[in-house]
Amino acid sequence: MLVLARARLGLRAAPLARGYSSPAPAKVPIALIAELRKAHPVPLAQAREALEKSGHDVSAAIAYLTSSSAGANKAAKVAGRATTEGAIAVSLLDNRRAAMVHLACETDFVARNDVFRALARSIAETAAFLDPPPEGADVEGTQARTGTEGVDPIREFAVDQLTAAPVISLGDKRTGDTDAVQTVAQALLGGVSATGENLVLRRAVTFAAPFPATEHRLVPGAYTHGGDESSGKIGGLVILDVAAQGGADGALNALLAKNGLEDELNALARNLARQVVGFPTKALRPEPGVADDEALLAQPFMMAGSDQPVAQAVADWARDRGLTVEVVGMRRWCTDDL
Questions:
Q1: pTM of the model
Q2: How many structural domains does the chain have?
Q3: Which domain holds residue 226?
Q4: Which residues, 6 or more positions from 188, have their beta carbon under 8 angstroms from its beta carbon?
Q5: Would residue 185 count as lying in a domain?
Q6: Do residues 257 and 244 make contact, with C-beta atoms less than 8 angstroms apart?
Q7: Rounded distance, CA 184 to CA 207, Å?
């Protein structure tokens, strides 16, 4: 009654005794939210929630965002969403191993996000480091599409096998705790939590050069466009088979050791990968359904400043250096292919 009477007189109610109050949680400072989002880009509401749960500690909030439990809960909520954007990431290891992966997301905003790109690169590095699946585990696409006999040296890496593998290198601590051993699947869950979007590893290929290489050497080249040097909207991967003219045992290694020729060879492989990306390349040679401008070896070698067909330009380049060079494998992926 006293409270009601005071209200009718326009007087404020007396505050409750301190022991009976229920204070609201302390508001998260905007500066902390900004700091967290700069280090680990996430939606505003997600950043605020993480800071609330971690007692306004930015490091603890990042750990929460990259935890498997947080990622699993988020993944369950977004699993049905369409993933029409993404990145193609490539990795070269000592010019002996290579890989290319396609990681899909929902929006172009996330596709350009540093955390997402770092995750895609880490998966590509993992695929490049690991040995290709055994022959019995191959999936459709491993046979050479060159019109020649043999097996394409670029191997399809089954997604379920790759996601079960341990991450070899995340490379960027913004993707999570790089000291903790985690699988690719767990890294993807951390990426879902960090970006707030559905992430799907669509496909992967890998290559490993035989070792030791004496008479022949397989040399990979990789390139991406529409992003940074190792991830973008389009990716290309090529494999060259290199030998010394005449095929003398040991002659190849001796040639490549002279006058920076090995660096020139690696640059040629990269230029061929750029060519693959720069043209609507579908195959190595013209074939039914593949026009000349869609066949790598029939295209003018624009990336080397030549109007000669790629096949002739490569043959001339190799002959002048005492080598034979043949393109034996190729892939070109775009994020809107699927």
A1: 0.75
A2: 1
A3: 66-334
A4: 71, 119, 163, 199, 201
A5: yes
A6: no
A7: 19
